[in-house]
Every structure is written in C-alpha cells, then in structure tokens.
Design a protein that fits this description.
By secondary structure, the chain is mainly β. The chain is 8% helix and 36% strand. The protein has a 6-stranded mixed beta sheet with strand order 10-9-12-17-14-15, with helices on one face. This is Laccase.
Length: 554
Amino acid sequence: MAAASSVLRCCLLVAALMTLSAMGAEAITRQYLFDVQTTSVTRLCSTKSIVTVNGQYPGPTLFAREGDHVEVTVVNHSPYNMSIHWHGIRQLLSGWADGPSYITQCPIQPGGSYVYRFAITGQRGTLWWHAHISWLRATVHGPMVILPPAGVGYPFPAPHEEVPIMFGEWWNNDTEAVISQALQTGGGPNISDAYTLNGLPGPLYNCSAQDTFKLKVKPGKTYMLRLINAALNDELFFSIANHTLTVVDVDALYVKPFTVDTLIIAPGQTSNVLLTAKPTYPGASYYMLARPYTTTQGTFDNTTVAGVLEYDDPCPTTAAGKIVPIFSPTLPQINDTNAVSNFTAKLRSLASAGYPAAVPQQVDHRFFFTVGLGTHPCAVNGTCQGPNGSRFAASINNVSFVLPATALLQSHFAGKSKGVYASNFPYYPLNPFNYTGTPPNNTNVMNGTKVLVLPYGANVELVMQDTSILGAESHPLHLHGFNFFVVGQGFGNFDPINDPAKFNLYDPVERNTVGVPAGGWVHMSWGLKMAWLVLDGSRPDQKLPPPPLDLPKC
C-alpha cells in the first residue's frame, strides 16, 4: 500500500503540472478548499486522532504559477483554534493573509472559516503551508508548488518528473499534550518517536516496513525532488545511496547549481534538487535517508527515516519474486558542523540577467540580535524541569516574546496598540557579554510583547548571533512575508570591524529561512516592504488595505 500510495502522489503531481501547462500564460485566480478536521491515522503500530486538512497527512499540494492569485477557504471542523501560514510567500500588501495567530490575525475558531487571498509575485519553486498556532503544524502541513509563468522554462534542463518530499516528525502521543506539558513544567518537550518522509516513517522503525515512501524511477531520466523540512525542531541531513543531488533552488529562488552527496535542510526550508537515475537498470534499490544534525546538550530524536529509490525493471516478468540488494548512504555524524558549513558556503544566487540578485548596497537600519536559551524562575512552590529547577525560555536580545490576546496587525491598523504591544524592541543587546564564551551568571530573560516599527521601503541589515548561555546550538530563523540575502556567516562572536570585509554583496543566497550557526552568527540584508511592523508608504499602492470582512475575531 505504501508504494502504491507514493506512486499515486507522483502521478497526481504530473497530472497537475500537465493541467497547469494547458492553462495558458495569463495569470488566474486559483481557488482551494481546506477542510480542517480530525482523522484517525496509524503509525508505528499506534493509532491516534490527528488534525489534518481534507483528511490527508501530509495535506494536499497547492499548485499555482508565478503571477497567479490564490484564494484558500479554510473551514475549521477541528476542536482547536486554527490559522494557516503560507511559508515563504511574499505578502506584498496582503499581510492579512500571512496566517500567524495573534500576529496578523486572530485564529479561526472551531466551526469558523476564513478566506486567505494573496498574489504570487516574483517567486517560482517550492514553498509550503502549515498551521501557525501551538504545535498543530506537526500534522497540518503540505507543499506549495509554484511553476514559472506558462511558456517560461527552468534555467536548467526540464526534469522528467517532479516529486514533493516532505520531512516531518511523528509523536505517538498527542502533540498538543506534548507542548502543553513542556509549557507547564518549563522543561524541553518530549522528543518525537520518528521522522517521516511524506508522512511515512519507513523500514528502520519498528512495525513500519509497510509504511515506506518509495520513489520509482526510470533509468537515464532526471527527476526534480521538491524537498521540504516540515519537522518542528530538527535540521536534517539527507542523502540517497550511490546517487548525487544537484541543488538548483532554495526557498523558491534559483541558485547556481552545485552537486553534493549529502545536503542539510533546516526546519522551514525548501530546496529543489535534480536526481539523475543511472543509465541502465542497476539490479538494486537504494535507501534515501534523513537524520538530524544537532549540537545540543539536551535530548533529541536520534533516529533515521528511510525511503527507497526503486528502478523500473525492464524485464519485470523474469524478475517476479526476485529480491534485489539495497544499498545505504553514509551520512555525516550528528554533530558534523563542518559538513553543514561546507554545504551552506556553496549556496549562491543565480544572479543572472533574468534572475538578478538585488542586494541592497545602502543600509537604512542596522540591528544586532542575540538568540538563544535562557531561563525564567519557577513559580513559588512550583516544580520546574529546566536548569537548576528553573524554566527554559527562548529569547532575542534577552526578550522572550509573549503572544498578545489580540492580533498585532489588527490592533495597529485600528490604532489601538496601547496595552497590546510596545514598539521599543531593542536594536542591540542591552547588556553585551561574550556571547559564545563564558556565559553570564544571571541567565534570566525578560518577558514582553515588543515590536520593531520600520518605514516602508527601508533597507535593513541584521546580524543574528547565537549564544552559549545554556549551550550553543543552531537556531532556524524565518522572516514572514519577505526574503533576505545571507551576505555572511561565521563562528564565534561577530566582529563588526573585520567581518564585513568578507561579505558577499554580489551573489549571496536569497532565502526566507536560515539557520543561525551553532556558536556563530549570520548576517542578513533585505529591502523591507511588508514585514515586521512596517508603516504604510506615502502612495496609495504602498498602503495596507482594510482587513477583510471575514477576518476572524478574537
């Protein structure tokens, strides 16, 4: 059943691509219905009820072309509040559709609905959608396939087929109970029981040989794998035995192609890679493996998910019942930071005439953000499971964000921000220290609902600095509604005198999600239009329209 299901998904993708190809060059409005519901699913010999879209896990693929308008009607038949984020979509004057609960909208309550409307501008490749409230994204997620405009090809040879592959995590327990327990105790959440490929854990897990993703290929053909890391917590190494992968796109943006045996993909990131099958039938199958990269001192899911790459046999009648050998790739060590930095150093924007890298050369606002784990004191007479009986607290510039009771964008637009948020988020750490050296004695962080207010059209420079307060580890950062250029990164503390000389301002990779290196820093630059809390521009076409009439109420 697993193999049949996988082949069906590939066929559906090919059929959808053929349908889009026949629709002409004009941009159209593509409409989808997402029915959020509970569905009974069995994995690892354990059955539980999970939240899904349209009863599918992973959810349905959203197809569109660059330049299209998209309307997705989300009807919430689940028992939970819900919102959907279109991860990586440039929300240009469509911030009401971005989806994070209590940021751009109040959640869709059980029994309610909301229509997300947005345009796809200057993007083509692979993105994804997911729930953006609590931990519901563990099962509420799916691919977004964005094709070039009709008549416009890829800047590389067209593949024979295109196949979305979503990495995920599976918990036997209810994920809402997992995060609820972590928030109550202040400890780290219980680790997942398995990783998944397109929702399937594969043969390396107990009771899961029948739940294996299988990719059928023809000798000599080239396939484009649309990779998406939908895992909640972990960066993942990925490799296919005895095959190389050519990276041609990340986060729906073309890059200068390069070939690797193993790639790294952080939570929230996407990548299109070309896989060329062997020229003749090899008489073997090959594992596709993914496992985590981490430098954390805490617990993590140290397991491996496997799918199988199978070749069409030119003589299937003579091969009936024949067992072929299966080969396995060698993945880097779990903490192989060199493998990660070597891979990320290869990423370069295509920077061609058709796809230029518009790197801002002048900067209007500069920020330096420290990111890492600190602590909150345990409540009086409480029992907490963080360091020394405290509670873990993630923070940026020592501020741990507190969700408001109403959406930030709604309160800003209505001119009722007082008591909802403060616009004094610190540009720099208020108390500088040796960020990757000896940590300070006081590890407590403050709480706050603080935002940065920026003018429309500002060019922004941001350094994200990891800290070793409770151990250095990599942190993924996703910028909603816009992209940025990764012009530099390194290890240790950022040096504002010497490091800028190493910046790549010609063809840096453009992304919407980046991993801040463990014990290091990443330098980003972008021209900001509609991200963070951005004030309207002076022209009518630079002003956010009023909220939709069906925008959910808190």
